[in-house]
């Protein structure tokens, strides 16, 4: 490893699946927003 700037010499230490990372992030955010929506609707009905 003489040339530290050569990307071919660097091993990918942690292979990632970018699509699944994005999909899981979207699903998690969607779930949190759904829970917030349901709680807000319940509070609205309790108030009125």
TrEMBL record:
Keywords: Membrane, Transmembrane, Transmembrane helix. The lineage of its organism: Bacteria, Bacillati, Bacillota, Bacilli, Bacillales. The chain crosses the membrane at residues 23-47. It comes from Paenibacillus sepulcri. It comes from the Bacteria. This is YqzM family protein.
